Amino acid sequence: MGEAYFYHLTRAPLESTLPMLLDKARAAGWRVLVRGRERAWIEWLDEKLWLGPDDAFLPHGIAGAAHDADQPVLLSTDAPGAVPANGAACLMAVDGAPVTPGEVAEMARVCVLFDGNDPAAVEQARAQWKELTDAGCNAQYWSEETGKWEKKAAR
Length: 155
What we know:
Layout: E1 3-9, H1 14-27, E2 32-35, H2 39-50, E3 61-62, E4 73-76, E5 90-93, H3 101-106, E6 109-115, H4 119-134, E7 138-143, E8 150-154
């Protein structure tokens, strides 16, 4: 059974934090599915990931192309429970995308990244934490409020 890690973004924006987490997931040998809620948002994220430094190239693609199965990082708006086309072992939910307890159980890791400066995003993350932990999923809450990532809670 995997774990859900909640990342409360307060200092660095998603487009800075996500590549760091993707690099860690890739270093663990995992393929990753990044799930968002809206196609336009996924396209914005795709552009940001391509604009990274040359020495930090992050191979990825948007779901729906001919080579989805080959992508180490696949950006998608697929509904929870859909089988990742790239065989992902790690799911990163962004922009309030849903995650199910079944996905936490099936994946090596699930990461929920949320904007700590957006009250609606914080409330949604709290609801996701409650849903997943009430279902028996192991979860950790990480915050960057001090300038470095620190684990603040585990359940």
